[in-house]
């Protein structure tokens, strides 16, 4: 599955470009939430997610929460209509992470844990029973358009052995035709792509190309 990241879309063209992407057969979008603190950049807030759900009710909104403030933002994005929420291991204590994963489970929002490229994959074993997905960062979070970190391939393999098919592994950062293939061969099943889809040829062409490579 391909989950386009809307981070690199010209904000003034969001609806048009999302519609084109939906027409190309996409049914989930990856929405990067950056708080200017956990990562040195700002992006979108809950209003964008509720506007997205009004305009595209049948399309899944996957929230990649890059923030140290889950106490305010997890409820806010749940209320805004998120279907999937991915929380960074590094952004809060394990106790808090457990608390918010339970909250998401109780509120029928799919839950996931995100790991930065330098966080040991082994920490995932503590959360497997309460998550629907894992997100492995293949760049350090904060900006679109970065290069895939080659060490990610062995981390994907390690995570894949650890979860043993119980939950799908998603990858995020520097995904293009080549890196998606490497990630897939290592065990990834969901591919976030931003600049590869929105910063070159037409989005239809880019999606078709990526789908072809991943088949
Ligand atoms: C990075 C974000 C990514 C980013 C992906 O912090 O989490 O989702 O938008 O963009 P590309 O595909 O350009 O690396
Ligand atoms: Zn992301």
From TrEMBL:
<dbReference type="InterPro" id="IPR013785">
    <property type="entry name" value="Aldolase_TIM"/>
</dbReference>
<comment type="similarity">
    <text>Belongs to the ribulose-phosphate 3-epimerase family.</text>
</comment>
<dbReference type="InterPro" id="IPR011060">
    <property type="entry name" value="RibuloseP-bd_barrel"/>
</dbReference>
<dbReference type="Pfam" id="PF00834">
    <property type="entry name" value="Ribul_P_3_epim"/>
</dbReference>
<keyword id="KW-0413">Isomerase</keyword>
<keyword id="KW-0479">Metal-binding</keyword>
<protein>
    <recommendedName>
        <fullName>Ribulose-phosphate 3-epimerase</fullName>
        <ecNumber>5.1.3.1</ecNumber>
    </recommendedName>
</protein>
<dbReference type="InterPro" id="IPR026019">
    <property type="entry name" value="Ribul_P_3_epim"/>
</dbReference>
<dbReference type="InterPro" id="IPR000056">
    <property type="entry name" value="Ribul_P_3_epim-like"/>
</dbReference>
């Amino acid at each position: 599955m391909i989950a386009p990241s809307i981070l690199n879309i010209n904000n003034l063209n969001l609806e048009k470009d999302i519609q084109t992407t939906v027409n190309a057969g996409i049914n989930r979008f990856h929405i990067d939430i950056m708080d200017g603190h956990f990562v040195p950049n700002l992006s979108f807030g809950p209003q964008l997610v509720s506007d997205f759900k009004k305009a595209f009710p049948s399309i899944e909104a996957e929230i990649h929460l890059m923030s140290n403030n889950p106490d305010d933002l997890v409820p806010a994005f749940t209320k805004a209509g998120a279907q999937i929420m991915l929380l960074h291991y590094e952004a809060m204590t394990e106790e808090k992470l457990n608390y918010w994963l339970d909250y998401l489970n109780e509120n029928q929002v799919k839950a996931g844990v995100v790991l930065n490229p330098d966080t040991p994959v082994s920490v995932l074993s503590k959360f497997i029973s309460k998550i629907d997905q894992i997100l492995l960062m293949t760049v350090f979070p904060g900006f679109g358009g970065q290069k895939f970190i080659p060490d990610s391939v062995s981390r994907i393999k390690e995570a894949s052995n650890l979860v043993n098919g119980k939950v799908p592994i998603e990858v995020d950062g520097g995904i293009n035709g080549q890196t998606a293939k490497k990630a897939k061969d290592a065990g990834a099943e969901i591919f976030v792509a931003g600049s590869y889809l929105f910063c070159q040829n037409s989005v239809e062409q880019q999606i078709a190309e990526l789908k072809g490579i991943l088949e």
